[in-house]
Structures are given as C-alpha cells and as structure tokens.
C-alpha cells in the first residue's frame, strides 16, 4: 500500500470581466465572473514542485481578458467554449478544461447607462475533454412565491411528527437550476430566456400538493419547450413562511400575517430528464 | 470621578414580517424587516437587574405582528409611526422610540404569484420622542453604471500620486440614500417613487467630472422634485472599473474590456439640503 | 429657500495591507484594512466638478502602503494618527481626517508561519481635526456564551406579552465595543489587551438578571481597569438560544437541547462613562 | 422519447442544535448545524403530489433534537450515523440517507462560560445506503500563511503570460479538507484532531515550489499519520498577497508591504489517496 496522487485540477477563479461594446453612442454591457479549471499531466508539480506543465493561473486570467477583446462575448456558453478549447488545444499537458461563467444582468437606462438587475444570476459550465464539449446552463437566485394554491397533507407520520396538515399555505423558493444541452449547437441566449420563462411558468401555474410536485412540473415544462435540453437539475429550498399565531391577542389570522424564516428550511433536489438522453456525468 | 451609565436603548431587531392582503383572488404582498429600539427610564435594569420598566423585546416582536393584522401596512413610514407612538404612549418608562423598516420589493407574476425584485431595498426610520415624530426614507443597493460621460482630472497631486488623469471612464456606484421629510404628512409611497426616480435621473443625465459632482446633482434634482424633502444624505462607493492593459498581447483597449474591482474603493458621502430647513439631528 | 451642499467627506475605503517585519528568520505580521475619509474645502468638486482640492483616493491608498514601509505599524492607533496628521498637514484644503483601521489577528505557528485567529477583529478610529486628535479603540465579533447563571423575570407586561419568566437561560452575545481614550498618549496595544480581557471577565463573572446588567458590568470593569478610557459603548445582540420542547416525544429538557436562532434578536446598546469626562462627539 | 423523473432527494437543511451536558457545575457544549437528505421511493410526490412516502422535513428536524437529548452527541460522525440509520431503518420508502454536520467550536472560559473559537468549522458527511455506511470528515476555514519559504518559477509560458518568476513569495490559503474513513469504527474526535494537526504541519514544514506541492505534502502526512483515512480531498485557494511597488515613492520593498487580494485567486484542488483503497463515490 502506498500513498498516491488522485484526481486534481487547478485554475484561476473569480476573474471579473466587464465587456462593453460601443456601437456609436449606444453601448452594450456584459458583466461576467469567470472560473477556469484545468487538468492533465500535473503529477510533477504535486510530487516535486516541477512546474513545467503548469500554465500560471495569472496567464489564464490574462487569456480571459484578451479573448474578451478579440472575440467578444457572444454568449456565456460560446465564450466558455472558446476558452476551454484554447487551453486544451494549446497546452500539451492539459487534456481537460472546465470554464464556469456567471453573469450579473443589467437593465438599460439610456444609451450608455445601466442599472444592476437584481440578485438573480445566469450561469454556464462548459467542459472540454477527450475531443468532446459539453454545455450546462443555469440560473441562481430566482426567488418565487405563491400566497396560496399550495397544500401539504397526507404525509408519513412517525413518533417525531408534530406538523399539522394544511390546505392553504405560502409556497416560496429560491430557484437554482442547471440544465444540460444535448449539443453545443444551440442559440444559447434564446434557450436561456425560454427555459427561465418556463421555470417561472411552471411555478406560477402549478396548484401544488408538495414542492416536489412543483419541481417536477417546472422541469417538465422547460424540457417540453426546448428540445435541446437533455436534462435539468433543480435545487429548491422551501423558504418557510409560517402563519403567526395571533390568538393570544384576540385576533384571527386567515392567511394574512406571516413570519419568513431563514433556517432551517426544507431542501428539495431533483432531476427531470428525457428517457432517451444518454447520461453525461462528465458534463457536471 | 465615578463610573456612570450613559445613553442606552434596547429593542427587537430583524423581525421578519410578510403581510398579505387578500382581495378576492388578487393578493397584495409587503415583505418587511422591522427593528425597534426604545429608550427612557432604563437605569434600574442596567444597575441592579430590576426589569420592571423593561417591556420584553419578545413583546415588541408580537406587537409588530399584531399591528400588521389590525392596521395593515399602508406604507413603511405610517406603519413605523403607529408602532413608535404605541410604545411611547403605552409604556410610562419609555419616552423615545425608533422604528427602522426595510422592505424587500416583489414584482407581480399573477393574481397570487410574485418574484423577488432584485437586491435593492427600501428603508424607513421613524423616530417618536418628546411629542415629536420624524420620518427618514431611503434606499440601499441601487447599482448604477455609465460606460462613458465621466472624466476625472485636474486633481491635487502630491508625492504619493501616481493616478493618471482620464477623460473617459466607467462610473459605477451602489447608491445608499436617506432623506428626511419636513413633516409626517406625506404621501410616502408616492414620494419614495419620485425621489428614487430622480436619483436615477440625476446619475444618468449628469456628464460627470467627479463622483462628488454626480452626488450633488442627484440630491439637487431629488429635492427640486419633492418639496417635502428637507435634506438628503447620499453614500456613493466608487465601484472602480479599471481598463485592462492588453498591450502585452498586441491588443488595444479603447474602453471595451474592464476589470471590476471589489476593494479598495472610493467612498463619497455628502448631504444636499434646503438652506431654510432646520436641522433635526434627532431624526437620524 | 435654496438647495445647498451640506456636510460631506470622501476617501479610500478597504485598503488591504499586510505588513511583514523580518527580523532574521523570525517574522512578524500585521494584517489591516484601512479606511480614510477626508473633509474640508470640497464645495467646488460638488458644484462644478473642479477637482483642484481633491487628493485622489488612489493617492490615499498609495500613502497607506508607503507609510507602512517608512514608519511600520506600531499600533493601529499610532499608524492611524500618522496618516490622519499627514493628510491634514499636507493638504491645504483638508482640515478633517478620519482613519478607520481593522485588524485581523493571526497566531504564530512557526518562525514565519501563521494561522488566522478566528472571526474577531480589533478596530481603531482616529480623528484629526482642528488641531485635535482622538482615538477610539474597539473590537467586533467576540462571541460569548454562558450556559447558565442568567435569569429574566419581573419585566413589564402588556396586552402583547406572551413571554414566560425564566430563572435559568442561556445568555449569548456577539460583543461590539468601542472605547474612547481621554488622550492619544496611551500604550494602545496593552490597553487593548486589558480592555478586551475585562469585557470577557465582566461577561463571565456576572450573574445576570438582564443583558443590560451584563452590559453595564462589562463596561464598568473595563473602565475600572484602564483609567485612560473615558467612555465605552457596547452593542450586544441577545443571541437567543431557545429550549426545544421535547414533551411531544415523551422527553424532558432540563437545559440540555437548544435551538440557536439567527433573527429576530434582542439588541442592547449602552454607554458606560466617567462622569467627569467631557463628551467628545467629534471622536465618534 | 418521454420526460421522466431522475435522481432526487429531500430533507431539512440547517437545523441549528446546541447541546449542553451538565455535569454538576461544569458544563460541556457542542454547537452543530445539521442537514438531512433522504432518497428512495419518492416518485409519487413528484408526479401526483401523493405524499404518503414523504416524512416531513419538520419531522426530520424534530428527530435531530430528540436524538440529541436521548443519545447525546458523542461525535459528529456517530450522531450522524444514528440519524442516518434511523431514517433508513424506520421509513420503508427511504433507502438512502445523508447527514451533513457542521460544528462551530467554542473554547472554555469557565465552568459554564465559552467563547466562539474563530471562523474554522469541523464537518462530517455520513451516508447510509444499501446496508452500508460511510463517514467523511472535514474542516473549512483554516487560514494558513507563510511569509517566506515559497517560490514559483519554471512554469509554462505562452503568448498570454506576463507573470514574473519569483524565489520568495507569501503563500497563503484557506484550507477546505474532506477525508474518507475506510470504516465507521474510528475514534472520530481523535482522528479529526490528528488529521487537522498534520494538515497544519504539512503546510508549515513544506518548502514550497507550488501550492500543488504543498497540497500533496499536506495530504501525504495526514494519511501517514492516520491509517483509517482512505483518501483526502483538499481545496486550496491561493490567497494572493502581492508586493506593493513602492519605487515611485523612492522606497524599496524587500518582502515587507503586501496587498492582500480577494479575487481573482488561484484554486488548487487535489486528492491524495492510498493506492489499495477501493474508491467509494457514493460516500461523497
């Protein structure tokens, strides 16, 4: 038995990039944070400190900025594919690249003026390895709430169960979604907009008996809308809003006054997929 | 020389309140976080642990919820005034109440469906003391950016100055604003909407030679629009976006590729006020 | 009635400085974050964008680094005084400087090896204005907890009170303290260590009937120990630990199983001072 | 082709538990945050909202508290194993349980007094499935720094490389570690203490030519010390400390004045393992 090096990777995380396109007086803006992670023949640096195969993370950062100038940012996924292929193609020791991109959206206020648009972010994870490329799109921080049309009852009961069943509750969640495209030939910005719209639609239009049911409905409608999507993974915290007991003050509370709690919270995680889509664990 | 008790106050902080109004199938939603701080004849609890004058902070929290049911939340300021007056009027030992309210905005998706609207929050600070009441409104987290129309030059230079003057830079800030109303007889929701719009307008429409100049312009236009506002205090971090030097890669960079930095940052703070408005330090 | 400029200031915030002293193989380390804020004759930049009186915040940052090399960091307060006096003395337009310093402590692991020591930070606020200088020391993030020796009863009761009195509870808080020295001729590092030790001692040794009583005891013992301290301001959130009701599961819970809650929380704020110390509002 | 449900799980996240043991006047304290995630026959709730197989997350929370009273918290791993086995054994529909525990350490100040001990946390992930049980221990937030004994040169260079080689730099990182035990028959608290000590020892005693080399050394020494550990995964951000260029001010800077940067940062991730240890992907 010996101690050996196992899987490893390295790269530059959290490179902040703001790319402006100036088309006369009207400017466009994309605001990204980029993480690069590379893997390959990296045993020497771990075992002896020989860095001959190590492209510095500082160089990776420089490449992000130079490529932003040379190629622009057509979409998160296309920019990530350019970067990932560059590292794998140009560095003999590197055979695997993952580029993770997060976009902070801005809304237009004028020809060259913008306001940050909320706490929601768009994400993409691009993987280039073994002659293949994968794109996983996603979003974080989409907070949705229905003040009614949600029930929860008929659940399993054991000796530690004190929860009462309910036929009318607030249902709220902060959506994290990741969806894998079956190929990299996709209109990524259009697909993102559609999937996001369907996730919202699935949440709003489902009369819910469990957050799991809502999760499945959201994924089902997104996949129905966009055939390019092979599977979608949803992480839905159940942001509990509890009815406040106002009886001690002689007041009833028919679904009007709630305390929003931070933790603990229920956490519902699930995948909705096409049954004929081959799994691609290396994409995640 | 003796050691004595100085100014003090206590209260419940961060009470989370979601108030739903159900008007048939169409629901309304307000999402608030409320801080209460009370002062008065509180020496005994400090000096001897005698709590006869201490209304528990738990009771203050209960009061927030009960008042939300009984009175609703007409506006942050009116709800805060109700609470502040209640504590001062009903507790003989309490002569000073401050209620701080923060609202997380939601946008409507359907009759009973909502999405959280970004990272921006609306605030109000209400002070009730000595038969007077003050209302200070505000907002946090409004992030604004101009990709041009900003210069910075002609500044003081000393032995530690290395900054180059510029005639074209990105100007970005995250606005924190607090404005004091001259009275409490205000249409608070309408005034908030107007002041917010004018702050945005002031930022967007000012060709800027310094962030200080933009600050003053924002305050000036807000006060011009709303005569109820006696003074406004603005805190504007200068969220630096630095041009990336791409010359080592044989690329120019005419205002296209920027690194957005977190810290350090410039911090510009200033007040714009009416010269005939009496100061009201007790309101802040 | 006209709209005019009121109080204002500007500076560089969050300059991160790590200062190493190399005394042969044994190294010393201080890790600071420095905020500078300057005020004076700054109307022109606000009103017209004329920056002749504006020393760039970039220059302020450079000065922090250059002074760290030239003078070292004897203590937070002394380094802040050097910086504050420099800006007021060297810039004709500047008559007021405030330097806020936060230190992240490290513990020694070896001659040149260190580990970050927890979430607690030491702070100092130095003000130089009108030929005077003030130093306010402090700390944040000192989290203390007693599992017993805390009661709370005999409090005021009204129609919204549901809290039960208790003779045995967990008392926990995260101490934020700021204390003003009567002069700037102080052994600041020694005084800091003593005041911190006394705050801990006051918390641990007080049998408490209210967090207010504990606050006063903490301040009282700190002032008794260090005559240089004119006043101390304490902000003590009551980090509630509630007994979990295990009766539904046939279990009692004699002070053994608690839920630690984040919010809401009680917030206790108070000053303990010497009765013969002149107030110095400009120091805060 | 049809749309179908894929892998899924649910549970209660972030249950805050403080467990006090009262042995006469001397009290012990453990402060945990517990996440439970369950999987099994959960298709019905997703597809139809039939919750018959869903043990409420509220019940899971209650179980954490009740078990803390009944069984105490011998170690994170043993408490997690008790919980995981309970859910799998008692719920016919559940065949997979994962319990994630995070401990915030406290240091003793007195018989019943404690201070929170820094930003570092201990973690454990316990998985119970298919008659097997796995334990993965870990820690987060261990920030280490060497002011010298670190070089970086001999790296790959391409058209985007501008980094200069160095023979003396600050090396700093915030260690996140996870290690898998080969069995669940381990003295978990003792093993944790030893592994943590070895990680620190590996960082301090390695003269480093790359952070990868330091990573491998840390893992190698930890595995050498504790034969129960089958593999260890380390995530090491390279917290860059850059020398400040003081030449414009006529000052040299021989390793004395640094700017600590937040982002971007290098991110080094790697596994060190025994070559005869069977992989256990289901444990992670």
Q: Top keywords for this entry?
A:
globular; 40% strand; alpha+beta; homotetramer
Number of strands of chain A: 13
Mean pLDDT of chain A: 97
Largest protein-protein interface: A-D, 81 and 81 residues
Alpha-carbon Rg of chain A, integer: 23 Å
Quaternary status: homotetramer
- What is the H-and-E element order of chain A? EEEHHHEEEEEEHHEEEE
Helix content of chain A: 10-25%
Distance between the termini of chain A: 32 Å
Low-confidence stretches of chain A: none
Protein structure class of chain A: alpha+beta
Largest sheet of chain A: 8 strands, antiparallel
Strand composition percent of chain A? 35-45%
Q: How many alpha or pi helices of chain A?
A: 5
Describe the structure.
The structure is a homotetramer of 284-residue chains. In chain A, the strands form three sheets. In chain A, strands 2-3-4-7-8-9-10-13 form an eight-stranded antiparallel β-sheet. A two-stranded antiparallel ribbon of chain A has the order 5-6. Chain A has helices spanning 43-47, 57-71, 76-90, 188-205, 211-225, and strands at residues 3-13, 15-23, 26-40, 94-103, 106-108, 113-116, 121-129, 132-146, 171-181, 229-238, 241-243, 257-260, 265-274. By secondary structure, chain A is an alpha+beta fold. Chain A is globular. Chain A contains five helices and 13 strands. Chain A starts with a strand and ends in a 10-residue tail after the last strand. The mean pLDDT of chain A is 97. Chains A and D meet through strand 1, helix 1, helix 2, helix 5 and strand 10 of A and strand 1, helix 1, helix 2, helix 5 and strand 10 of D.
């Amino acid at each position: 038995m010996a101690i050996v090096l196992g899987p490893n990777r390295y790269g530059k995380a959290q490179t902040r990039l703001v790319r402006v396109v100036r088309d006369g007086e009207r400017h466009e803006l994309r605001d990204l944070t980029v993480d690069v992670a590379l893997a390959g023949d990296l045993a020497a640096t771990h075992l002896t400190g020989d860095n001959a195969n190590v492209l510095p993370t500082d160089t990776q950062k420089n490449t992000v900025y130079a490529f932003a100038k040379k190629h622009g940012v057509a979409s998160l996924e296309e920019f990530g594919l350019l970067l990932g292929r560059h590292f794998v193609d140009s560095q003999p020791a590197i055979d695997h690249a993952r580029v993770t991109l997060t976009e902070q959206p801005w809304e237009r206020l004028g020809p060259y003026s913008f306001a940050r648009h909320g706490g929601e972010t768009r994400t993409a994870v691009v993987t280039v390895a073994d002659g293949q490329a994968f794109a996983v799109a996603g979003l974080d921080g989409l907070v949705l709430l229905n003040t009614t049309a949600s029930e929860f009852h008929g659940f399993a009961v054991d000796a530690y169960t004190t929860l009462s069943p309910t036929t009318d509750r607030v249902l709220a969640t902060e959506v994290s979604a990741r969806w894998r495209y079956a190929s990299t030939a996709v209109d990524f910005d259009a697909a993102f907009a559609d999937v996001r719209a369907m996730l919202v639609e699935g949440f709003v239009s489902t009369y819910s008996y469990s957050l799991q049911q809502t999760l499945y409905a959201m994924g089902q409608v997104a996949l129905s809308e966009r055939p390019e999507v092979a599977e979608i993974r949803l992480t839905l915290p159940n942001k509990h809003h509890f009815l406040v007991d106002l009886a001690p003050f002689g007041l009833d509370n028919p679904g009007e006054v709630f305390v929003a709690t931070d933790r603990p919270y229920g956490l519902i995680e699930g995948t909705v997929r096409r049954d004929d889509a081959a799994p691609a664990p290396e994409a995640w």
